[in-house]
Structure formats: structure tokens, C-alpha cells
Amino acid sequence: MTGSSDSDSQDGYLTSEYNSSNSLFSLNNGNSYSSASLDRATLDCQDSSFFDNHKNSLLSTKVPRYISNDALHLPITLNYKRDNDDVTYTNGKVNKFMIVLIGLPATGKSTISSHLIQCLKNNPLTNSLRCEVFNAGKIRRQISCATISKPLLLSNTSSEDLFNPKNNDKKETYARITLQKLFHEINSDECDVAIFDATNSTVERRKFIFEEVCSFNTDVLSTFNLVPIILQVSCFNRDFIKYNIHNKSFNEDYLDKPYELAIKDFAKRLKHYYAQFTPFSVDEFNQTHRYICQHEEIDTSLFFFNVINAGIVKPHSLNQSHYPSTCGKQIKDTIMVIENFINHYSQMFGFEYIEAVKLFFERFENSSEETLTALDSVVNDEFFNDLQNLIENNGFA
Ligand SMILES: Nc1ncnc2c1ncn2[C@@H]1O[C@H](COP(=O)(O)OP(=O)(O)O)[C@@H](O)[C@H]1O
Ligand SMILES: O=P(O)(O)OC[C@H]1O[C@@](CO)(OP(=O)(O)O)[C@@H](O)[C@@H]1O
């Protein structure tokens, strides 16, 4: 059965319908970013920008006070227990899960992955599953450090220009190595839920990933079957993006770099990504499902979930679930927990994040701190306009 998932309406006054006819990801409008902007669709802004209008920022929205801090931290648990014999099989192999992340840099993929793991660990239905994140950036840093033996002069420096599209081969190599590590750890039964944390921003990359998943599942030497789950993380709010870029400037790529250089470098990286990114669509979901079914010669499961602007925008018809005709309890339970996490993300974590962003900008407005001035000089309207142009001209306008 195929269908879109429901979401709650508890936080209805904050959320906006995100339907396929006005969606960025809509097939009917030619996957257009410009003709299907989120701010028009959801925030009632006048221009047709990819980004939320700064003045109509989500930050001006009130975070509901009826959600206590405790509730924000407590993943919602469901009311029944997992049985010991819940393990299910596909083609005689024990099922495990692979979560394929998709999203531009600094949209919150790694952060949301750690929230999801927290949620799976806190739910009796899924707490026995061993979860692991396979981050392509981390593998890149490890390999670069080992190769150049100067730990902090990483391949991210502008001289190597790793993120320039002309150097895509290098990025693909790191992604392949990361995937191989993931398959190896699944096959040696070291984890049950493997999260592939990379931008996976092009159709070609995703095609490659699903070809590899099919090869893994049909390989007589692999003991396990991977149930693929696609989790797309999107962020269209300028304040969120600016705040996230600020935080990214403190990650391992920039430990030895001054703040302003880090911001400039990351801003440049973002431009490269915006020039190439293709969002995952319902159409691509259907094509991928057909491909997997043909290749594995069975009716397989495939799931697609979205977190948009930290869960504040609801992706109703974008989320897709395809359960096979004979679907084991373990798959149903795990998907239910993940779906529940997606539907309640704003209450569990999103609002707390908005509070943090608000605080950050309050501090920003009342200070003349050099670091924050540097941020403003790089991540400004001109920068967002550049990103907008890049996304419109990358074949999806
Ligand atoms: N949902 C979120 N909750 C809390 N912080 C977030 C969230 N999304 C992004 N951030 C902030 O933005 C920074 C970058 O997010 P990250 O998860 O590393 O993005 P990505 O993995 O997509 O590159 C994080 O360090 C965090 O400070
Ligand atoms: O190869 P893709 O899919 O672009 O993803 C990997 C890249 O994503 C990035 C994008 O910034 O992730 P991360 O921020 O998690 O470190 C790079 O570090 C990393 O090299």
C-alpha cells in the first residue's frame, strides 16, 4: 500500500499545509524552485523566493507555552512492548534498516539524526535496535588527516576546492567508502539501523546508493536485508540557515581557521551545493521503488519522510510509505516510531531550536561583537539572492 502519512494538528497555528500542488518537490510544476516557493505556499509572503522572507520570519512566531521543557525532551512513546520474536525476514534474510539522508549542508541532518536515535532508544518498540551514523564528512576528514598527516589542514581548504562541482569525483569516492563501511558493519551484525549521513544531493548519487542497496540485498554472501528509509531535511528560513552556518564554522573542518575565514569557506561550499542540488521528489520515490522491486524480484518496502524548517512546516503529501504485501511486525513498528518522530518533531525538538535561534539573534542585534559582524557581512541578503539564483539556474527553475 502506498500513501502519505498524517500529522498532528496540535501546533496547527504554527504549521502550514505543504501539499504537492504547490510544493517545491511537485512533479507537476517541473520540480520548480521558483514557481513553487515555500514562503508563498506556507508563509503568505509576496515574492517567490526559495527562502522564507526575513521579515515574515518564523522567528517572530510564538513558541507554544503549553509545551513544557520536559515534554520537549521526551520522545513520545507508544503504549505497547516489543516481543522477542518480532524479528522479520525478507528473502530468508533478517531485516535491518538503512536511513538515507538527503539535504543541503547545514539544514540539520546530523542534528536530526541524533534526535532520531534518541527517540528510537527511548521507545520500547525500538530500544533494542543498535543505531549508528555513517557520516561522509567524518570519513573524509579521517582519510584527509591520514593522507596529509597534518590533522587540521584539511581537504576542505579552498586550495583543494573539494566542493567545486569539477571535483565531484573526490566527493563520490568518500561517499563510496562511507557506504562500504556501512554495509560492512551491517553484514558483520554490528548495527541494526544505519544512518547514511551525507547530502546525497544529486539524482546520480541516489541512483548509485539504491543500486548498492539492491546489490547488497541480493548478494548471496550478505546475511541481512536492508529496508531503505529516505529522510529529507530541508531548511528555507534565512534566520535558521544563518544560525546554522554560524554553528558549522566551529565544526572539525574549521578547528584551525579564524571565524571569518570559516564562514566565508562554508558560504562558498553552500553555493556549490545550491548549484547542484536536486530535491528528492515523490516521482523519484516511485521510480526508486520500481527499480528496487525489479532488481530484488519482490515487492519491497520503501519509505520517504521529510523534516522541513525543524518540523514547523508539515510535508503532508510528500511523505510516502510503501509496505510490501507481507510486511513483518518489526518493520511496521519501526516505521511507526519513525513516523511518530517526524510528525512530532517540532514539539520534541523544533521549538527548542527556534528558541535558541531567537536568543542568538537577540544577542546579535544588541552587540557589536566582531564575530557576529563578520557573519552579517557574508551571510546577508546578497548571499541569499545568490543562492536563490543558483538554485533557479541548476536545472530546476
Ligand atoms: N533541528 C535542529 N535542532 C537543533 N540545532 C539545529 C537543528 N538543525 C540545525 N541545527 C544547528 O545547526 C548546526 C548545523 O546542523 P547540522 O545538523 O550539522 O547540519 P547538516 O548535518 O545538515 O550539515 C548544528 O550544529 C546546530 O547548531
Ligand atoms: O558527498 P556529499 O553527499 O555531498 O556529503 C558529504 C559532505 O557533506 C558535508 C557537507 O557540508 O557534511 P558534514 O557537514 O556533515 O560534514 C561535508 O563535510 C561532506 O564532505
Automatic annotation (TrEMBL):
6-phosphofructo-2-kinase domain boundaries: 85-324
UniProt GO MF annotations: 6-phosphofructo-2-kinase activity; ATP binding; fructose-2,6-bisphosphate 2-phosphatase activity
Any one Pfam family match given in the protein's UniProt record, by short name: 6PF2K
Keyword field: ATP-binding, Nucleotide-binding
Keyword Protein transport among UniProt keywords: no
BP GO terms, sorted: fructose 2,6-bisphosphate metabolic process; fructose metabolic process
Entry GO CC: cytosol
PANTHER family: 6-PHOSPHOFRUCTO-2-KINASE 2, 6-PHOSPHOFRUCTO-2-KINASE/FRUCTOSE-2,6-BISPHOSPHATASE
Protein name according to UniProt: Pfk27p
Organism, as annotated: Saccharomyces cerevisiae x Saccharomyces kudriavzevii (strain VIN7) (Yeast)
